[in-house]
Every structure is written in structure tokens, then in C-alpha cells.
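Changelog note: in this version the structure field was regenerated for every chain. One regenerated record is shown below for reference.
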Amino acid sequence: MRIGFIGLGRMGANMVRRLVRDGHEIMVFNRTPEKSREIEGEGQGARAEFSIADLVASLEKPRAVWVMVPAGDATEAQIDELLEHLEPGDTIIDGGNTNFHDDIRRHAALKAKGIGYVDAGTSGGIWGLQVGYCLMVGGDPEVVKPLEPIFTTLAPKGGYLHVGGPGAGHYVKMVHNGIEYGLMQAYAEGFEIMHASDYELDLGAISELWMQGSVVRSWLLELAGRAFKANGQDLEHLKGWVADSGEGRWTVQEAIDHDVPAPVITLSLLTRFRSRQDDSYGAKVLAALRNEFGGHEVKSE
């Protein structure tokens, strides 16, 4: 297939590489032209375009354009610009981490113009080029079906599923990332307990051990082992500052909206917030209260 692809970040560039490796023709555009030239220069089948108008003009009708830029304002602006050049029968695929409510709104607005909209929840990170990307796709069946050669190339065997109607792809990806928060937090707490113990434990070796038949083996655990091997188990040069890209918050809000108790995901999200505080004001209040009612020891700055 020939499609347009906008956004050549760490995931986007490797997705293009995987697509052209399988024989697809990919017309690429990136806000930084050097990145487009770099991908084209690899000589595998990607062609650089340097404006959205030229990108759209390079595609055969009906056109399909994959947008892989940061969720929110950047994606919104990119879709608005695309709409200046697309025509009825064309399709936009959003592969970012968009809020599913935005998908539902966009789908309705684009359908009124005769333009298809597909939300493709994409998981795989920087490893996707080698192992493939898990794709959770939402949209109207008649719009999704013609694009399946793209999805099946990007995904490993069994790694693509049309999960439901508009917004369903990003909804499933949202919950996926909420679960990821909880899994990562559990590993982090377990390794911290072992790191603090009186035993001289080799955490990298334990990671490898647990990968051999243990019930807690996983790809995340494998990555923990890689991290210990690369950085040392004290992780001294890393700052314990952990970002969140929105999906955890949305998952917690969805749980609240549907009266679903989700304490693990919620607490893992709140722990990420705590990681960004060099010195918690709340912890200072707790220390002050303990000192006031019990004369407990406090530490001054």
C-alpha cells in the first residue's frame, strides 16, 4: 500500500522502517525536514515530502494518512491542516495516545465531511521495529478493513485487533497503559525492598532468574534486568522523576465514572505525581504534626 505518514519521532520513524521493509510505499512528513531526509536517505522505500499539501498530492485516491504526533493540541492542529487538503473517501489514522472522547468527536466531524477516521492504539515503544507493535484499532469496519495490510505489517502475528467502533482503539490502549502503571509500580516496590535489605542481592541476576519460569516473568521484567545491567543496580545517575502521558489519569477517571474500584492503578498514578516533588509539602505537614502531638524527631533543612 501507499500511505502518508506524519511524525518521525522515536516510534514513528521505526514504524515507517517496518512498513517499507515489507514493501509498502510511505510518503513521510516531519516538522523537522532533516528527519524526513534521513528516513528517505536510508533507501528502503520512504519518500520525503516537505509540506502537507505535497504529501497529500503524492498519494493515490482514496488516500490514507497516519498521524503519529503528540496527543492533544499537536494532533488536533495536524488533523485540521490535513483537512484543508483531503477529500471525501480519504482516511486519517491517529496512532498517538489520544483521549477516546476526542476520537468520538473527531469521527463525527470527519464523517460529516465524508472522511474516514481510525484510532489506532499503538504499543511497542522503541522495540517495535524488531518485534512489532501491538495494535488496538477502533473505527467503522468499512474504513478499517482496507487498511489491514498496514496493520498486519506493523503488528506481530496475532498482534492486531479491530476492537470496536470509533474511540475503542484508544480506549483499550488507555486501559492497557493504566495496567502498565500498576505492573511497573509493583516491580519498582519489590526491587526497592530487595535493594534495602540486609542481603547483598544481585538484582540483575534476580531479574534474569525470574524470567525463567516464574509467574512474575514479563517483558517489563526483562527490561528491568537490562536497566540494571546497563546502569548498575544502584541506578545512581538516574533521577527518580517519573512522567505520565495522560492515559493513567484517564483510566482512573473512567473507573470513577463507572464506579469501578481501581486502587492499584490509582495509587501507581499518584506515586508518579509524588516522584516529581523534590520535597513534599504534605510530608512536611505530617512531620510537623507528629512533632506537635508526640514530640517525635524532625529534621531541619
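Spot check on this record: Residues 100 and 171 are 5 Å apart (CA to CA). The first strand starts at residue 2 and ends at 6.
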